[in-house]
Amino acid sequence: xxxxxxxxxxxxxxxxxxxxxxxxxxxxxxxxxxxxxxxxxxxxxxxxxxxxxxxxxxxxxxxxxxxxxxxxxxxxxxxxxxxxxxxxxxxxxxxxxxxxxxxxxxxxxxxxxxxxxxxxxxxxxxxxxxxxxxxxxxxxxxxxxxxxxxxxxxxxxxxxxxxxxxxxxxxxxxxxxxxxxxxxxxxxxxxxxxxxxxxxxxxxxxxxxxxxxxxxxxxx
Length: 220
Ligand SMILES: N[C@@H](CCC(=O)N[C@@H](CS)C(=O)NCC(=O)O)C(=O)O
Prior knowledge:
By secondary structure, this protein is of the alpha+beta class. It has nine helices and four strands, in the order E-H-E-H-E-E-H-H-H-H-H-H-H. A four-stranded mixed beta sheet has the order 2-1-3-4, with helices on one face. Strand 3 (64-67) and strand 4 form a beta hairpin. Helix 1 runs antiparallel to helix 6 (169-178), helix 3 (75-85) packs antiparallel against helix 4 and helix 4 runs antiparallel to helix 5 (134-156). It is globular. The two termini are 13 Å apart. Residues 1-5 have low confidence and may be disordered.
């Protein structure tokens, strides 16, 4: 399946929920040809998180990746950890590559600014102490999503991928976040950001994405 000279696959566990950032980590694991076990977690309920999840991430959030080095949480950290560990697949520019800074910029921007704007629309109760404040938070989240995606769209311009000529894990992150855009939450439509959509559509065609997103893309 993979043309690269891969080393022996390592084995991972991934605390996982559909439509969460763990789905993006799954795409990375597929791209890297690694073996992994999904540990399904219910993150929809407002009740307490399972002791198993809290033991590896006291924040009670997914994704959490378990390797023989222990658990790691934070999607951007997991992406970077995996890409660096399996650098033979070329999914991330190496530490001395001139594109390294730009790569990290997008990962951090996605995980802080963009993911946070999505949270404002999904979990307004975390941003306002009173219920009457929720609609304002949700509205502001949608406004931020529009302006932040616009920034990404303009940065891509006519480039093939976020980093220019070469595909990277940052494009997978972009794809993952683009799948969260939903009219149900009043989000802007992906079609408003034609450059983002172009990259997202190309990632969607990869076997790794089909495997991790069967409901969206169809059976792998
Ligand atoms: N900054 C964290 C955010 C993780 C996060 O918000 N995960 C969501 C799913 S994408 C979650 O577990 N939500 C459950 C909850 O908020 O209770 C990361 O990038 O990993």
